[in-house]
UniProtKB/TrEMBL annotation:
This is ABC transporter permease. InterPro entries: BP-dependent_transpt_permease, MetI-like, MetI-like_sf. The keyword Cell membrane applies. Belongs to the binding-protein-dependent transport system permease family.
Length: 293
């Protein structure tokens, strides 16, 4: 007599394949790339093609949008779309140039000052705080007085001002990494400090540093626009968005597109870069991903 198998006791184990969970897409990062990418594309196109020459004043004063002039003309008869395209290139150049200067100087100073101890550590920390409190506009005026009002002077001033912020962040991050046990183990095994920095320190701080540099890009674009608004940026016929806003403020009621076009693009670029920074934080920081899961 055969004994019936209990329905609760399976006779065969079913082995289902384990599906690897898919990584969540960062829609914030995608949205930021889309917004900033449009401005970057406009800047790249301006390198090879412009509707009109930047100093062409044959369009008539303050004409409205038309087939010949998509955004109209300014008070001198220059094509506004041409100026907007040129301004996008200047904004991207200012952001990239400033961030590169800030990253090169700030990261180097931050790593070096992280090894300081005692009174030297306190002195360097106070020095970085003083540099951060130094106004970017005043630094730009000093550089312009020594050189001239050019885009290079504005980028140099912004980059130097931002390098102090990057240096302080890198210093804090490096000190945190140097306090870990695996750094002590690496040093005990005879690993030199340059190898420790290259193999252990930099790989652990670069995610946070990249996010901060993305934020600094947006701040640099705003700073360049502010300097150009005050006449300390790229000189004419280079049409910086800040200079366009300054020139269009007197005719805003009669020709608002002269101020709206550069203003909207400036806001879109800064929002896009900030969304990219937020998306990178979600993507690169495991702790943030766990909190938002």
């Amino acid at each position: 007599m055969t004994q019936a198998t209990s329905p609760t006791s399976p006779t065969k184990l079913s082995a289902e394949p384990r599906v690897k969970p898919r990584a969540k897409r960062s829609y914030t990062l995608l949205a930021g790339c889309a917004l900033a990418g449009l401005i970057v594309l406009l800047a790249l196109v301006s390198l090879v093609w412009l509707p009109y020459a930047t100093d062409d004043t044959s369009g008539g004063r303050l004409t409205g949008p038309s087939a010949d002039h998509l955004l109209g003309t300014d008070k001198l008869g220059r094509d506004l779309f041409t100026q907007v395209m040129t301004g996008s290139r200047i904004a991207v150049e200012a952001g990239l140039g400033s961030v590169l200067i800030a990253a090169a100087i700030g990261a180097t100073l931050g790593v070096l000052t992280a090894f300081a101890q005692g009174w030297l550590d306190d002195t360097l920390s106070a020095f970085l705080d003083i540099l951060i409190a130094f106004p970017t506009l005043l630094l730009a005026m000093l550089i312009v007085a020594a050189r001239s009002a050019t885009l290079g002077s504005a980028v140099l001033a912004i980059g130097l001002a931002q390098s102090a912020v990057v240096a302080r962040l890198v210093r804090i991050l490096v000190k945190r990494v140097l306090a870990q046990d695996y750094i002590t183990a690496a040093r005990t095994s005879g690993t030199s400090w340059p190898r420790v920095v290259a193999g252990h320190v930099l790989p652990n701080i670069w995610p946070t540093l990249v996010v901060n540099l993305a934020l600094q890009f947006g701040l640099a674009v705003l700073a360049e626009a502010g300097l150009s608004y005050l006449g300390l940026g790229a000189p004419p016929p280079n049409a910086s968005w800040g200079r366009m806003l300054q020139e269009a403020q007197a005719t805003f009621t009669t020709a608002p597109e002269g101020a709206l076009a550069p203003g909207i693009l400036l806001v879109l670029l800064v929002i896009g870069v900030n969304l990219i920074a937020d998306g990178l934080r979600d993507t690169l920081d495991p702790a943030t991903r766990r909190r938002r899961a």
